[in-house]
Amino acid sequence: MEQFFLTLPFLFASFLTLSLFFFFYLHSSKYSLPNLPPGKIGLPFIGETLHFFSTGRKGHPEKFIFDRITKYSSHVFKTNLLGEPIAVFCGAASHKFLFSNENKNVISWWPDSVYKIFPSSFQTSSKDEAKKMRFKILPQFLKPEALQRYISIMDHMAQRHFTDDWENKIEILVFSLTKKYTFLLACRLFLSIDDPYHVARLLGPFHCVASGIISMPIDLPGTKFNRAIKAANFIRTEVIKIIRQRKFDLVEGKASPTQDILSHMLLTSDENGEFMNEMDIADKIIGLLVGGHDTASATCTFIVKFLAELPHVYHKVFEEQMEITKSKCEGELLNWDDIQKMKYSWNVACEVMRLAPPIQGAFREAISDFIFNGFSIPKGWKIYWSANSTHRNPENFIQPEKFEPSRFEGEGPAPFTFVPFGGGPRMCPGREYARLEILVFIHNLVKRFKWEKVVPHEKIIIDFPMPVPEKGLPVRLCPHKAWI
After folding, report:
1. According to the lineage, what is the superkingdom (predicted)?
2. Nearest one of 212, 11, 219 to 114, comparing CA atoms
3. I need a surface site. Which of 107, 128, 418, 465 has the fewest CB within 10 A?
4. Are strands 84-89 and 382-386 parallel, antiparallel or unpaired?
């Protein structure tokens, strides 16, 4: 027995060596195909993932991309991220190719971490479910005509948010409050939940899910991935309770079939008359809530940052919003016509999204062998496209580091150079919803306050896939009456 235990370290070392051998054998075969893009595999298992994430955590997510474009003199290069062979596509031509070839050469793909956090995704046809969500369910609520009726609700909730959480405060942390604002809206409009206690109970777990969705799928205590799985399980249990209550309310006539996305999901069948099960609906609702508040909260946060740094931009936004305020009767809420007048404010928001894209990029999978830019992309390879590859490229934007809202006047940027919402058939279906909640936020913010940053040179870092302020963006508030 003693001899057996003495041989255990040897057996473990042998197993590890064998595993590494097979890893290198399998991966070298993937990377030894002819005419692949230039690039490196990186370390065993993790590839270049740590470097990819670390450049974002240091506040320079574009560095990983531009360093390799320069090194390989190519806008397409290969790497290994999250344990997968990946071709990184950069630039407007790459964006155009990927967005134009959806379901032809490429389909949407997400890392294993996503499917382990949302396990029902494995049990359904992602292509069919995506079509149902995008073309049958979401347009009912997220197209401009449908969203018009939500503007007054957004304005009312924004007023309540600023009254409860901003007014009579000397100093606040902007990032945590914008997350609260956008999450309150998403819960109200997607699930008809307006109970602040219920919403607050879900907000923390949602932050864990959002932070761990794109991460190394290492399920050990203390890792982002482990926390995300636990948080998703908690949220799923809560959402299933809401689903079951809504089913009862629909039968009893206490809920409307058209009141929100949840009701519509429960009552919409496929061509065979089959309905989504509770687990599937819960995962899709969680995904919508993450997407519906996290990206917009990042943009709202950085609007506050840049307006604090650029008084002349703040002044023009303030003037535009006050013109709208003066045209309203006391107590009158914002409407669709008011939103259309906020042209300069939206240009500011677009310039914020150019410099701090709410989504850094996204993944695809090659469904056939194809050639792009002279390089072979094998079937099964994963592809990553990067927003920063065009947003911060001087070929697309003169002085790309300069904040200049006038870039979006007239016809605006060239096609496929400004891609905060993606493009093609998979362009974010919530982009108009995001526009409304961001503009309503700006309106209620600037008509109440001026502010100054507490940390003068706070970095924008990437908690992948989102940009976040390193310190949460603390600001010192001053109501307008104090400036007069």
Report:
1. Eukaryota
2. 212
3. 128
4. parallel
